[in-house]
Amino acid sequence: MAMVNVRRDVEDKFYRYKMPLLQIKVEGRGNGIKTVIPNMDDIARALNRPPTYPTKYFGCELGAQTSMASERYIVNGAHTADRLRELLDNFIEQFVLCTACKNPETELVITGKSGHENMHRDCKACGRQTTINMRHKLVAYILKNPVNKKEKGKKGKKGMTAEANVGGPMVFEKGAEDGSGEDEDASPSGTPAPGDQGVPTSGTDIDNVLGRSDPVLDNPDAAEEVSKKLAKTDLNGDDDDEEDADSPYAVLGGWLEDNKDASDADIIAQIKEQGIVGKHKVLVEVGHHLFTDEVGKEITKRIPLLQALVTSEKHQKSLLGGLERLLALSPNSDDLLAAGTTSKVLMALYQDDILDEELVKQWGTHVSKKYVDKEKSKKVRKSADAFLKWLDEADDESESE
Ligand SMILES: [Zn+2]
């Protein structure tokens, strides 16, 4: 196997840190063409990172879907080895090398409470901690798929470094020792349960979904049919359990995160595949993971999908909860909320009859820590002020008529 320096800008052949040269194999054709990286596992091992991180990084940088099931690391589309090697260099620069001494023996350490996480590189060579650009799209993925070898009860900063050495490349550190009680309410679905190994290999990524076509939503009658079916299956009772990383909801969430551009029909196919058709908690995942910071614009394109999925008050509440997470947990949350994004989104949902007036009003006046922590929950509602005021004024007007 051809080996290269982890830092390819270093020409010294005695440079200590080597990795296999990235190989590719382009498979399939047409819409289904994809680039397989057969030696991603070995590369990742040399970098002391899970193979999912660089693969996902390629996806982020190329705007391509990735698939990481059954230890096959795939980027959709045809890409050259040179391009991917360049991107791998960038990944190493941004997520591996110590920025102070350029040594690759680092660990990614996550600090802070759920919703307020921060991440840095902990360098074993020089001991310095250097920051990661939290705005990179890969960060959200890493936060959701941390390498968590820490065991329950081992908390606190003191033991961190020592444990990290034993425990693998990355340590997920909870911000506060006494925070565990709150986490249950505040934590988003991605945080692995204590004891969960959290190794992000398969599960969150589903095999290539391109090429699968389901004409459901191209046809309004069919959409209505789906909507009816979805409404029916909602009678299956409550589903408030299953917060763990393997739950169909978590899988759906991960898939949505990776496939934000998927067609409505593909999303519905995915919900079917997970066996959670009609469940209101589907909307938590959709609200949280289908959109980006541009949700104010994106939401209008997803109205038909949401109309098909939201079939009861419970569904509406779950959708609000998911959107609350999206807005509160974004690295740019403060900017988003200050810009009144919540109002924009609610307005679109209200005007297209996805949300009922009474329900939104109720939501707007009741801070809850069900989806994010209280402080954030307050902020999200404050960012809905303009819309809620508008609702009230519209009410007054119709009363005085
Ligand atoms: Zn260093």
Automatic annotation (TrEMBL):
Keyword Protein biosynthesis: yes
Any GO BP: formation of cytoplasmic translation initiation complex
Cited InterPro entries: ARM-type_fold, IF2/IF5, Transl_init_fac_IF2/IF5_dom, Transl_init_fac_IF2/IF5_N, Transl_init_fac_IF2/IF5_Zn-bd, W2_domain
Keyword tags: GTP-binding, Initiation factor, Nucleotide-binding, Protein biosynthesis
Protein name per UniProt: W2 domain-containing protein
Any one Gene Ontology molecular-function term assigned to this protein's record: eukaryotic initiation factor eIF2 binding
Domain called W2: residue spans: 238-401
Database matches in CDD domains: W2_eIF5
Region annotation Disordered: where it falls in the sequence: 149-220
Family from the record: Belongs to the eIF-2-beta/eIF-5 family.
GO cellular component entries: cytosol
The keyword GTP-binding belongs to this UniProt entry's keyword annotation: yes
